[in-house]
From TrEMBL:
GO terms for biological process, alphabetical: mitochondrial translational elongation; RNA processing
Major localisation: mitochondrion
Gene label: LOC117144383
Domain RNase III: 81-221
Full protein name: Large ribosomal subunit protein mL44
Gene Ontology MF annotations: double-stranded RNA binding; ribonuclease III activity
SUPFAM superfamilies named in the record: RNase III domain-like (SSF69065)
Origin species: Drosophila mauritiana (Fruit fly)
Entry GO CC: microprocessor complex; mitochondrial large ribosomal subunit
Pfam families in alphabetical order: DSRM_MRPL44 (PF22892), RM44_endonuclase (PF22935)
Family the UniProt entry places it in: Belongs to the ribonuclease III family. Mitochondrion-specific ribosomal protein mL44 subfamily.
Locations listed in the record: Mitochondrion
Alphabetized InterPro entries for the sequence: Ribosomal_mL44_DSRM_metazoa, RM44_endonuclase, RNase_III_dom, RNase_III_sf
Amino acid sequence: MSFLRSAVGLLARAKLLEGSPTVQTRRHIKRWVSPTLRELAHRQKKLGPQKPERRAGFVEWNQRSELFAFGKRLGESFELSELQRAFTEKSFAEREEDRRRQLGIEESDLHMPHNSDLVEKGQHIARAYVEAFLQHQLPKVPNEGLQAIASFLLSTETLAHVSSHLGTKDLIQSTEYPPSAESLAKSLHAVIGALASSSGIERAFIFVRDFICTQLNQKDLLDVWTPQEPIQLLEKICQERKLGEAEPRLLGDCGKNTVLAAYQVGIYANRQLLGKGFGEDVKTATETAALDALQSIFDTRDNRRPFDFAIQLEPKTVRLG
């Protein structure tokens, strides 16, 4: 009798649990889902890697909205017509004109503006401001070093890196997709030119400072510019700045006549230590010491004062002519 009572109690509890909302139900995945997914994965693997599709080819793409959002993301005010022209390459414009001509469109409506003049204008603005910025921030570096650093900032690789991270890849109207590094760099120059035309030259200068000059942040300048002949350059700098004759001296050595030999050389001028370096032989240690001395003279060491990326150079200090 007691067994029957316990069985009735268990049945009652089971009914309560079935009506409770806390009980997890089955997922009920259809039987066709798994084989379908396997078949799709097999077909995709059989086709191999596919070329990336243009984002502009999607149904929901709106070019004007994307251009407007691009300007707002950067915090700049662009004229949409100028920004549209900045992202239109000459090859794309020529192909579009040929397509319109084949469709029988009137000659007056065939012309499509492109970014050739904006690219040239942006290149001129970017180089002028970068050179002025470097001269202000690195006054002790000679012209040779400033030109090397400016060439790094204005190189195709650096500009393409900046342009791609600003989101220009899908906005560029080009005959190739994805756009090449050269196309990305040219589009960034064109954006600078369009900004100068829309908001003035000062806003273009600030744009160059914020997005191009900042690529020097936490960058070892010795990796950007390494003198080919440091000893000769050091002697020339010491003579020009009247620091005295540079004289290398052996400070220490260990492991002579072994494969683990090490030498320490110091370079002095007027009894002042300019720099020191190590190497597996005296020549290498002297060149390393010369590089260390040049870094000290030019104030380009790692522990130098950081670049001031908040500075606003006066337009008259930037040589645009």
